[in-house]
Amino acid sequence: MHLTIRVDASIEMGTGHVMRCLTLAKELKSRGADILFVTRALTGHMAETIANHGFSVKLLPEVSVEYRPKNHDVPHAEWLKVSLEQDASETIQALSNRKTDWLIVDHYALDARWHRALRKYTYKIFAIDDLADRKLDCDLLLDQTYGRNETDYRAITPGNCNLLLGSKYALLRSEFRALRSAARKKRKQCQEVQNILITMGGIDRDNVTGKILDALPSATYPLFPSVDIILSSNAPHVEDVIKAANQHPFMVNVSIDVHDMAMRMLKADLAIGASGTTTWERCCLGLPSIVFVLAKNQKNIALHVEKENAAFCLGNSTPKAISRMQDVFSLLHQDAKILTDMSEAAFGLVDGDGVDRVAHKMENLL
Question: Among 2, 237, 299, 348, which has the highest number of CB atoms less than 10 A from its own CB?
Fold first, then answer.
């Protein structure tokens, strides 16, 4: 099986799209697939990270003059930095002389027009999405958002498109599934929050991490938990966060480009994070969470997870929203059962087998 993955990372869009594509790529590689990543040289791109995971990468050219979206463009067109037509042309060049069974596309700025332009260069097209906000011309579609149903996509995908919808298809690395039993045992014994994990996305361009760190001492009183912060080396405020951590009254550890996220989530009693793709990792390990919405596509995830009692959603990362952490910690301090109830709810949302289900479906459709 020969696959090409078209995905980007940048300061603007973060690292989540590339990370979930890497998870799928690793599973498919273990099944014998030959894989090529195609990604643009945007500020904050992850070509080196992709290569370090053992995959071939073709880098689309840097952008000298940014494209200005037109009225007919999709809502996230500005993320592409070039016109849809230019991106399609450059991707076709990257695919020259390459057999492609599956073209996997994980990009909010690309729609059915782009897919149609690439049709004759691949046998099948697989779109990964979270928004259901534009037409998609694909043979297979994945939206791992909890609560998604066919009515969200039927009008914007071909009639013969296979839909993989809901958190049962969440693309999680194997280590999360491997630690579920250990996590269940730990969560049952947890009586108070002693260890906090902060993951506001790999980029965190607005330094929400720093704002949360500033608010923690008053929010958690009378507790003095240890804090583990995760960022990527591309995050623009890394140095500011490290400085704040060194001056903090709590024991705060800042880790960059970690490879043991599952183990860190296992050790934590509570996560404070963005409601992006790491939501499903936290749920798989039953980690109770306080979540903030840092992008439009995260809102539905946050609301669904809160509705299922697996997290507290405090909304956007405004000073007022961050100050509401004090109310959450007060509740948790008064009733330890809230933590265990949240854990059980989280465990029920994701079982960790999503990537296997997706890979199996791809194989069956060829």
Answer: 237
